[in-house]
Amino acid sequence: MKIYGDRQSGNSYKLLLVTSFLEIPYEWQDIDIKKGETKTDSFLKMNPNGKIPILILDDGRILSESNAILNYLAEGSDLIPKDRFEKAKVLQWQFFEQYSHEPYIAVARFISHYLGIPEERRAEYESKQEGGHKALRVLETQLTKSKFLVGDSITTADISLFAYTHVAHQGGFDLSLYPKVLEWIKRIESLERFKPMNSI
User: Fold this and answer.
1) CATH number belonging to domain 2-74
2) Cα–Cα distances in Å, from 160 out to 13, 36, 126, 174?
3) At 7, phi and psi to the nearest 5?
4) The predicted structure's pLDDT at residue 114
5) In this protein, which residues make up the domain named GST C-terminal (predicted)?
6) Is 196 exposed, middle or buried (0-12, 13-18, 19+ CB in 10 A)?
7) Domain boundaries, the chain
8) CA–CA separation, 5 vs 136, rounded Å?
9) What are phi and psi for residue 72, nearest 5 degrees?
10) How far lies 51's CA from each of 37, 66, 103, in Å?
11) What are the two backbone dihedrals, phi and then psi, of residue 90, each rounded to the nearest 5 degrees?
12) What percent of the chain has pLDDT over 90?
């Protein structure tokens, strides 16, 4: 199978992590967002939404949306709980990631780390700080109760939230304010077969 993604993208990084943890073979295809490679006719045929990552299976079927791909790849593994309620909790955290976390932390990171906070986007960057800190506080609260987001072992919920949280400082977020989050980051980084973001 083939994964189309950007090496700097947290959404793409989720798939690097799950394939590494589960030792799933794949072929990587670099897509440069800043060069407009998600807007080409050939890419839009694969994903009309013009976003990465996408997964192309051996039989040609295509999946988009990072968390959908992540859960597809992890299906049947210990990364997805068997218990119905705990599985729903994983999905709860993944919806949180896409609606209450990524729009603030990932966007602030992009504006700061990749664009250098141009003046025309400074107000947008600053507007993302409150929402990002709110999301980090939610994570901190949960991680005072459990080692991982859903119990005492890693799930796809952790992979989803780790991807942009561990680089949140690149968006101007001081992670030292969130000691339990920092412990959780170190816990994930210490797992067997962990790979850092730029190791694709």
Assistant:
1) 3.40.30.10
2) 9, 25, 24, 20
3) -60, -25
4) 85
5) 83-200
6) exposed
7) 2-74, 84-189
8) 26
9) -60, -45
10) 10, 10, 14
11) -60, -50
12) 94
Chain centroid to Cα 132, Å, comes to: 14
CATH top class, domain 84-189: mainly alpha
37-to-5, 113, 122 alpha-carbon distances in Å:
10, 20, 26
Residue whose C-alpha is closest to residue 131's, from 168, 105, 97, 157: 105
pLDDT attached to residue 8: 87
Is the per-residue pLDDT at 51 higher than 80?
A: yes
Cβ contacts of residue 193 below 8 Å, gap of 6+?
Answer: 20, 21, 23
Residue by residue, what is the 3-state secondary structure of the chain?
Answer: CEEEECCCCHHHHHHHHHHHHCCCCCEEEECCHHHCCCCCHHHHHHCCCCCCCEEECCCCCEEECHHHHHHHHHCCCCCCCCCHHHHHHHHHHHHHHHHHHHHHHHHHHHHHHHCCCCHHHHHHHHHHHHHHHHHHHHHHHHHCCCCECCECCCCHHHHHHHHHHCCHHHHCCCHHHCHHHHHHHHHHHCCCCCCCCCCC
pLDDT bin (cut points 50, 70, 90) of residue 34 is: confident
How open is the CA angle 79-84-85, to the nearest 5 degrees? 95
Peptide linkage before 53 cis (omega within 30 of 0):
yes
